[in-house]
User: Fold this.
Amino acid sequence: MKIGGLQPVTLLDYPQKVAAIIFTVGCNMRCPFCYNPSLVLSNLEKDNKSFKEMEVLSFLKKRKKYLDGIVITGGEPTLQTDLPKFCQKLKKLGYSIKLDTNGMLPDVLENLIGDKLVDYIAMDIKGPLESYSKSSGMDTDVKNIQKSVKMIIKGSLPHEFRTTLVRGLHSKKDIVSMARIVLGADKYFLQNFKDHKKLVGEGFRGRSFTNKLMKEFREIADKYVKECEIR
Assistant:
């Protein structure tokens, strides 16, 4: 596992769990608004503190009486070829696992679910299918996105979908298109863009939406899913 970050505790990222967060290195998207460029861009990997797998497992073994779960995020975790084995090791320690993914590798996701190696899935929806590459920053096979979404919604695992909304990239019309992608989902979170000094898109100047518009977007999306909230 290429691990570029470890957050010892979070009360927010895994619903109803006290968890640690593991950040993997590498991603198959280049979303211009992403604020983790050192985990995404190979030329910036040196900016990360590198963690050895055994070092992380040793830490988590000692912290078991304080933690309930582990969030594996990135970058894109499903790019890690040894992710299944790593999840098995976390399971042996007694942890529940939440996986954050962009859904580009549905076959990996299917295997993780089938082998009962994840307990909660959070998937990002970058934009409308017809213009997905505009937000993902890469040529994106949306059939993979659709396959992952369908698998998650029809599956038995608790899940959520989330979209970071950026003024200039997304419109009110796009909210309907994206909500339809996740029709019937348990939860759909809308996140307002927040500017950072370093973003994946060099020179990207995104803007956030007003609180009023975010509330309007939530009301629109709420018609398509069981629960929609602003995060």
Observations:
- The chain has a mean pLDDT of 95.
- The beta strands are 3-10, 19-24, 69-73, 96-101, 120-124, 159-165, 188-192, 228-230.
- The first strand starts at residue 3 and ends at 10.
- The CA atoms of residues 122 and 190 lie 13 Å apart.
